[in-house]
Structures
1.
Amino acid sequence: MTRSRPVFPFTALVGQREMQRGLLIAAIDPLVGGVLILGDRGTGKSTAVRALAAVLPPIRAVACAYRCEPRATAGLCERCTGKSRARPAASDVPVPVVDLPLGATEDRILGALDLERLMVSGEKVYEPGLLARANRGFLYIDEVNLLEDHLVDLLIDVAASGENRIERESLSVVHPARFVLVGSGNPEEGELRPQLLDRFGLAVEVRTPQDLDQRVEVVRRREAFERDPEAFCAAHARDEAALRAQLVAARRALDKMVFDDALLRQAAALCQQLGTDGLRGELALMRAAKAAAALDGRRVVTRDHLIEVAPMALRHRLRRDPLDETDSSSRVARAIEQVLGSVAA
Amino acid sequence: MSSSDSARMRPSPGAAHIDPVDDALRALELFSRAPLSFGGLHLRAWHGPRRQALLGWLRRACENAAGGAGPGWYALAHHTEPDQLETGTDLAESLRLGRPVARPGLLERFTGSVVVLQRGERVSRGLAAPLAAAVDSRRIALILLDESLPDEEGPPEMLLDRLALSLDMRDESAWRSLDALAELARAPRATAERPAANRFLPPAPSGDRGLLELCRAAMLFGINSMRRVEQASMLARMSAAEAMRVPSGEAVVGEAMVSEAAVGKAVAGEPVEPRANDLSLAIRQVLLPRARVIPMMADAEEHDPLEPPPSEEPEPPADLEPQNAEPPPDPGDPQDPSSLPDGSTDRLVEAALSALPPGLLAMIASQIGARAAAARGSGSGRESAKGRGRARSVGARRGRPRGQERVHLLATLRAALPWQRLRQASAQRARDTGEGLASQPSSSRPTAREPVRFHPDDLHVHRERRRRGSTTVFVVDASGSTALQRLAEAKGAVELLLADCYVRRDRVALVSFRGAGAELLLPPTRSLVAARRALTALPGGGGSPIAAGFELAARVAAQLDRAGDDVTVVVLTDGRANLSRDGLPGRERAADEARRVARELSPLATHRVLIDTSVRPEPAAQALAAALAARYVPMPFARARAIRDSIAAATR
């Protein structure tokens, strides 16, 4: 919706380190499973997501509706899977960041029969929806905790399988829909369905900065941006380019990251201590730690990285005990201290 | 408006006080210079000529500010379907012409305009979300008309947070007369005073000082949204720049964004340092209406003398800050004045507030408590009016419309279109052979203009989901006789139940009664966070006004019932009423009254449970349960889980 207007640069964000790191980690490794951003209104949640989109390096894609990867052999759309035909030319395209508005209809999300083709030629053609557009990119849901249940159900299936399967209106279509799910919301206004909560790899908390100087800086930069968006972005162009290069390098390094066994055992112990259900937490924790280390330009995952990502990878996976007053963040912090020793050490 | 005007309208109690209406109009005038930059206006007012007149004046002001052709001005109904905002297919036209006709999205038309959203308190989130995004990207300015009653849910917070100004015209006697408003519209001050220099004011950078003061002031008010500070700063700078009468050479006509940027660049570089006056205006008009805490309540006479001070003790200030998950123990805590090394902000805020006429601040402060309570229940609570009960379309299904069902045009068309060739061909055959049964008489051969042929089988209707939510209303006796022994367990039961509800998407509300009366501690909510906060604040002790508690519970239940919810009422009490509704002691009368109100409450709830919390089964509680037609559960050693289980048994 803001295509014509420049986007606030990611590198100009003030504070909110956890949110920034969480978003970058999710961008480096899509397998981490996306980010859920929880926090007050007016703390710059959507600004950060849109800023991230602008800083991401472009992807190489085939000119099909799903932006299939030219050299991939799996996870392709029907047309690109066909062996006999030559694939269409590939080009560099920006990473899609697709908004899923609260009021979206099922047709718009899943895709539906193309009415135009139907009217003109009577052809039955599937018109891809938002899920198709988000393939290989990001699907962003602001106020995700307020999303209607029947839409949540659609997402839950697709987010798990990575493909969108439509069997309706005499259509029978399967297409790839692998995206990084990014949601934001204020937990005060409603809770997220546990099934959807579980689909997010990371959950970061964001709060209004309580430091006065930081607050002033936030408003000052916003005002400078509002006054002259182009000039403001130009002033941050070098930082943006540097961050982009950092992301590219981190992605390349991801496969070669070293995660030593002792640390792996500690990560597992941490999950055990917290009683997080299933293996998903452990996987997210390890992937996120690797991505965090890669982002820092390291080749070896350290204990510090594990400590950094543990809260965001685990806090939303704790089993709920409604009588326990302590919030999940401090429970994670306590477990970290027990398993990994004092954080300060 | 001149000073003589304001003197006529409202006797000023002292020279130091400003007229609140003047103040608001001044802010609106600044708003009219760059509506898109301000996001918009939350206008609480009853429908009527006065609101009409104000909007008329504001529109004129916007036009004048833009030098003639102002921004577009559109009305938007609250029940607009969200997909109308985006570009789509015009079904009716497409059918008529037999080819697809695009329908421009409303947002496209609205770009650069002021959009007046009617009955904004009824807007669904589906519509609110794209509007909020449009305001964010400065595509539109939104004037949100709000006619909600004091105890009703207001418009979605998602929108309100983005609107810089907030104006309450509900007290019509305090407002300008119609004549005065009409006069304003005829001769806006702007054109009268500055015919040529009446252009957009440059949103020049703020001086550091002003920004710092506003940030601090926002913290004093317990405002967490950084958007508010941005908005306040915008207003202060506009006000300061206008005072400087920055002459602008360029005549800027048309869209606010363009002109603003143009003028802004022309004068950029010179920071505008708002004066104390400008900051005061911003504090009063942007920060104060959204305050969660009113700082500086030094003048004790503003407090309600009837309310004994000790009873306020258990209310922690955190209660007024629903946005703050935990009151942060850091130096930035708004409650901690020591975090402000420099007293200037306090003085500034004090000056800004003391300029208001006496009584007004106390009124605002009293509204804050109510708003905080409403905010606790909002979000999921909002659904009572906007999602629950009311049917909403969740897609289409094949079938003929029955009863209230609506035909789903798009789906019907999609079903019919693939068959058109076949049907037209068969219709043609039927015509040719003269034995057509279902075909319509038509002489022409199938062409592009051939009408679309529908068969009954094509018909699709909206699949509607009329969600009947379910809400459990806890009525907890927090009086001295019960408080200490059972309050803790009651809290536990509520949380357990909420954890269940949370899985089932049900809601919980909490009414407590003690001492002088009853209180809705937790409006219907699904938020565990909100519930936990309400429960930690649950104070105990004092008399036992059961009737008052039931009365409030009945009001809550009636509201939920109207919204289409199933209501379960769970009462935790020992049944020993000792205060009647008028606050007079006397067991006999109090018990009598309690039973009478119980009979009124009874039909409003689908399920009723009374948990007798006294040590031995109490006859008074049994009598009360009978009057309520409730399942009676003596629970001398009430345990949270046991209470939960018995409720589950009762509602099964």
2.
Amino acid sequence: MLIRFFLMLRAAGVPVSITEFLALLEALQARLIAPEKGTLPFSDEEKGSVPFSGVEEFYWLARAVLVKDERHFDRFDQVFAAHFRGIERAFEALMAEIPADWMRKSLELSLSDEDKARIAAMGGWDVLMETLRQRLAEQQGRHQGGNKWIGTGGTSPFGAHGYNPEGVRIGQEGSRNRRAVKVWERREFANLDDSIGLGTRNVKLALRRLRRFARQGAAEQLDLDGTIDSTARRAGLLDIRMIPERHNAVKVLLFLDVGGSMDDHVRICEELFSAARSEFKHLEYFYFHNFVYESVWKDNRRRHAERTRTSEVMRTYGHDYKLVIVGDATMSPYEIVQPGGSIEHWNEEAGAAWMRRLLANYPHHVWLNPEPRDRWEWTASVKITRELFEERMYPLTLAGLDQAMRSLL
Amino acid sequence: MKKPTSRFAGSDSYVATGELTLAVNAAVTLSRPLLVKGEPGTGKTQLAQEVARALDRPLFEWHIKSTSKAQQGLYEYDAVSRLRDSQLGDPKVQDIANYIVPGMLWRAFESNEQAVLLIDEIDKADIEFPNDLLRELDRMEFYVYETQRLVQARHRPIVFITSNNEKELPDAFLRRCFFHYIRFPDLATMEQIVDVHFPGLKKELLAEALTAFYRIRDVPGLKKKPSTSELLDWLKLLLAEDISPEALRSDDPKVSIPPLYGALLKNEQDVHLFEQLVFLNRRAGRPG
């Protein structure tokens, strides 16, 4: 059963490895969670403020062990809900089976060698799990047959600590945790999920390609730390060390498309941007909407008040800057080719004219497009932009970034 | 045989939610490092200190800076003192072991009882930093090349690692840790937390302060939302200034900016935004 859960997690894109799955089994073996409150080998007081049991405890434990990033919590919650819906009650009984058996014989130890031997004697974990799965199937059948879960008194094998069909716990004192809606069904981490596949780390690694260490000025300089270190290592014989002077000479001019059709991509753009900022000594960034016209802006909140003229940008930053434009290039073709085509203001000159000037001014240029490449063919404006850029448009994926950085150098 | 004190259940100065206790106990029992993330000011660093105190274990804190190297946690070779000693003709200079300075990890390994090791703000360091600690955290041992000696942990320390998400951590590293994300506490938990820190606080003041606090947190577009530690600071100020609960009540338009809000909002843009919102509300609320 747990193996299927594990596979479902992987299928849902939660990066779980076998090591972590084994760690979860280890944690279950160590009886970190109990079937019911108060059945752990230590008292409730020691257990402290752990107010839940059964499935819910298992949920917290599994999440701590299997999921390593809060972005994946939401996906985990969904899989958990899908997998354990309807079988919760059975699951609780199942959880009750294992430790009860263990506790009879080895109450005082968390897990002795005997225990391990016993599990091995039962045929190892897989067989154990298989037995449990069979048992689980039985349980499900029984519930579907008769709906008499509440009030069966002493005859029920599940005790009082179960869920009624509405998911409300009965037979226990009031809960702090509003159990009627289960934790994993609340999906509180939905806004932390990002399926963009391109994390800051990836972007960073790709952007490192942009770092070109150039020697400027003196070819070598005294490596003070190295000299002290190596002199000391030789117990006082002076040993001078020199290192080539290196610093990052790559200058980048970053144009980011905001608003309108780009709203979906703003986040990934910002990620790229935040990664880029720490990577270059000279990085200037500007925002634009849909296409570059006679002015751009630096502060999104004051975009209408404080604009910088594009011609001024070109005057200020020299030809050695590398131009990176991030945008989906999805708009009406008129916005590129026609004077007055901009949707926000009256532009005297067509966007294409401004873009040609920019490209002429910055011979090293790329366009990064967050839309998947297969969608490019369908949009006329993307086609026009690609022609303007002489096909130097790349998707915003790790591979695309790689190619883009290569073509910039 | 497990000591009864090997379980953490919060302490009298730290409110731990059930899921946090479970994660801590899972990490302690299976001796895996616990990676703790969460909003700034939700008590990530404090967790390790409290666990050490609750379980009565020595605590070793290793605070990471952007210049930190993994090696510094293991040991450093103090070449400069050796150079000085050599020029003074100190006989100590013959033995290189005199100049090996153990780092936090080493000291935690050498501890006579199981120690708690805190690696604070691991995301501040270079992107390869966590990768350099894989073997050390996994096997709890490392090799000192200068003295040809293998250092092994006497007792596997309980390791806490905090991160503020400034950098992504590598998968190989994550696989070895357990993970807990400290959520921002809800109202009930927050009342407990405040109660732990200010036992004598008047009920009305607390209720008003918490309302005002959550109201500020709900203001959209704040650059830095106030967190638990800021709330506690603010309450301390309110107590020191002896502010009445009435002054915190928001329906009085004249004082609808909470007093001493500088403790809650740490950014002049946020303060500005907040004042503007209050101003707008006031205008909207004016009759006629």
